[in-house]
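Entry details:
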Amino acid sequence: MSAYLSVKALHILAVISWMAGMLYLPRLFVYHAGRPRGAEPAQTFETMERRLMRAIMTPALVVVWLSGLFLAWSGGFFGAGWLHAKLALVAAMSAIHVFLERERRAFAAGTNARSPRFYRILNEAPTLLMVGVVFLVALKPF
C-alpha cells in the first residue's frame, strides 16, 4: 500500500505542476500577443514560454498520465464510470496542452495571428476541466 500512496503523492504533485503551467501559459500569451515581433519583451516571453512548456508542463503531463494510469490499475478503478469521465476530461486537457505547444511555436516563428482576447478566453478552459476532474475524483458520482 505504501507504493500506491507514494505514487498518489507523485500524481498530485504532477497535477499541481501541470495545472500551474496550463493556467500560466495562456496568460503569457495574452501579454505576448500584444507585443511587436522581435521586440525585447517578445523575446523574453518566448524564452519564458519555451522553458515553461519544456521544463515543467510536458514532464508533468507525462508523470500525470503514467502515475494516474498506475493508480487506476492498482485501485481497480477501470470499471468505474467516474474514471471514464475523468479520463475524457484529462484527454481534453491534454489536447489543450498540445494546442498550447502549437501556439507557442507560432509565437516563436512570428506567425501568431490570434488576439490577446482569444487567449483570455482560452485561459478559462483548463480551469473548467480541472473543476470537473476534482469533483469526479472527490465525489465518484457513478
In short: The helical segments are 2-33, 40-75, 81-109, 116-122, 124-139. Residues 2-139 form one domain. The CA atoms of residues 85 and 120 lie 26 Å apart.
